[in-house]
Amino acid sequence: MLSNHLQNGIESDSLMWSRVPDSDDASTDGVGLLSSPRDGGGGVDSLDYEVIENYAYREEQAHRGKLYVGYYVAVKWFFSLLIGIGTGLAAVFINLSVENFAGWKFALTFAIIQKSYFAGFIVYLVINLVLVFSSAYIITQFAPAAAGSGIPEIKGYLNGIDIPGTLLFRTLIGKIFGSIGSVGGGLALGKEGPLVHTGACIASLLGQGGSTKYHFNSRWPQLFKSDRDRRDLVTCGCAAGVAAAFRAPVGGVLFALEEVTSWWRSQLMWRVFFTSAIVAVVVRTAMGWCKSGICGHFGGGGFIIWDVSDGQDDYYFKELLPMAVIGVIGGLLGALFNQLTYYMTSWRRNYLHKKGNRVKIYEACIISCLTSTISFGLPLLRKCSPCPETVTDSGIECPRPPGMYGNYVNFYCKTDNEYNDLATIFFNTQDDAIRNLFSAKTMREFSAQSLLTFLAMFYTLAVVTFGTAVPAGQFVPGIMIGSTYGRLVGMFVVRFYKKLNIEEGTYALLGAASFLGGSMRMTVSLCVIMVEITNNLKLLPLIMLVLLVSKAVGDAFNEGLYEVQARLKGIPLLESRPKYHMRQVIAKEACQSQKVISLPRVIRVADVASILRSNKHNGFPVIDHTRSGETLVIGLVLRSHLLVLLQSKVDFQHSPLPCDPSARPIMHRFSEFAKPVSSKGLCIEDIHLTSDDLEMYIDLAPFLNPSPYVVPEDMSLTKVYNLFRQLGLRHLFVVPRPSRVIGLITRKDLLIEENGESSAVELQQSTSVRGRYSETATRTDAGRPLLDDLLG
């Protein structure tokens, strides 16, 4: 029955497809093939999100009952649970390690500077240097794919591009330990972007049952072999990473939906939401467990949450103008940041990093020394200020030792009743510095001169540090930059509107949102994340305002940060909207640059091997001849499937004639054709074929996709683009106009009950419509009714 179904499918599809030209003929009357950008070339490879409905797939589906479907769904939910737990534990480990390293570093430095500031500086510099060196060494020697934030690579994966090494086990290990070293070493970067990559790696490794290379695998979880299932798991991992980084489960779901995914559905929404909720529970449990003090320095400064609920209660209409100005500043500085990092990263990739891994390590160490010198040395040049009298009334201690949670840090001050405002934000962890900038009831804690100095120096350090060979996120540095100029604007607003109840910390929060919006160009997810991490819902309209303004200003200059970095790394993303000029281009013109190589249904093994060695195409149209001698396209066979057939050799035959698929059972499971994630997979050079093997034949009919997607040659490239991206395709056939129409599919034909029959309402509508238009109904040449008279 299956063989008949397959044969009928091939014959039906062949009626719609065109004649194929000879491989040496450049005629434009044949089939063209649109494929993913750079498919088969360079260092990236496209993913097969389309279901290949070949004979092996249909035979496998026929043997699966409702019990298997229920088991399949249950395992998906169980994996979502494991992803949430794994990502939450990884985030706890990273935060605990970073906070303890930072706490020990500042405690030791403060103890030493009581006797000698120079000795304290040397200790501070050496500790940071060791941590950054360990991070750079891990990345360059063990896991090169773990450098950077990883979000552009994950965004490319969910867009249909597989970059080798992105989701491997060693990348996960390098990301975790590299983040600890780079963030704990005081560099101007964060751990939030790497946590997104960490969650994606955990999800991918769970989906493939672990790592075979490091003998850490199991056959039981290897249920999700297709790229479609892996895509869903990686999406859950991305959301879990954001939820763990910011303690923002809803923000994690929206981040996955808005920023990284190219394909979404309601069932996936439920699993992503469930995964983020599990992460929130794991993180909350870990923080409660650490409240007893058994986690060392891990405590109030651990996971990001800057509570500003005790800040400004309301806002006035007069404040909207300065808030809009903050949005404009965020858009300008964000766009400038994207452009400067693009130039810096391009220079590194084209010149500096080509000199070897040793130069990468030297670069990271030099930047570490520069950062340590600036963060320790600049506060020494700043004159201390006396503690304000209002501090004692608000219950805030002044001063506090450096490295301790709170405001008013005493650093290189002559008396015990003074504090150094520049050291409060510079000689501190980034989380504590942001908490100080967001704090309420601390009027005039920072001078304009200190804020401008910090803004200029930290902005420069963030630009220079981004792109080094260490895991690097840009969320927290962006919040640092934005909150600095936001607080600066707040100071001027307080002085201008003297009678209004205005908090400088509120403007610092709005500045942080504006810079992230101007740089990363996120709106909905970023708005929810900022509300969740600040615990102040009253500021939601203001955050929305500055995000809209900053994104509009930033879009006027360049693309978002992740899009710029993806383009620089050669990741061919298909954005949500096609380019405007595609309206004037048709599909036939777009596919003329590549020559189509077609294969006969029964082909010699030697010819297959020769074709695979001579080109890098990943899809080949398969042709057959009718009894009348007409050449017809019967489907599409993938390069990866041909390699599996050549390696196994079980489907070789001596006869050059086609065989009936039902006469010989399929020796392969459908999952055997899946390529391992983030790897190059099987290559033709890895396959050994004897002279006897080369003289044998392969019948490709059971292994080809008999129903690939087809578009007419004169369809606009805009419609082709939308179809290609929304369906997650890898190949798309371009054919001439078909000679006849078999039928039309309408909404009614798709509303089918589980028993295979249409609903009573649909049958009634169909009967009434047919009766009304029975006199005008027409029939095709084959005698089948056209469906023009049905619901359309």
TrEMBL record:
Q: What is its main location?
A: membrane
Compartments, as annotated in UniProt: Membrane
CDD domains on file: CBS_pair_voltage-gated_CLC_euk_bac, ClC_6_like
Tree of life domain: Eukaryota
InterPro entries in alphabetical order: CBS_dom, CBS_dom_sf, Cl-channel/antiporter, Cl-channel_core, Cl_channel_pln, ClC
Q: Does the keyword Nucleotide-binding apply?
A: no
* One GO CC term, this protein: chloride channel complex
Report the coiled-coil segments. none
Q: Does the keyword Transmembrane apply?
A: yes
Membrane disposition: Multi-pass membrane protein
Entry's Gene Ontology molecular function annotations: voltage-gated chloride channel activity
Where would you find the membrane-spanning parts of this chain?
A: 68-96, 116-139, 233-256, 268-287, 320-341, 451-469, 475-497, 509-533
**Domain CBS: start-end pairs:** 592-652, 704-761
Q: Which terms are listed as keywords in the entry?
A: CBS domain, Chloride, Chloride channel, Ion channel, Ion transport, Membrane, Repeat, Transmembrane, Transmembrane helix, Transport, Voltage-gated channel
Q: Which family does it belong to?
A: Belongs to the chloride channel (TC 2.A.49) family.
Q: What is this protein called?
A: Chloride channel protein
In its UniProt entry, the species of origin is given as Brassica rapa subsp. chinensis
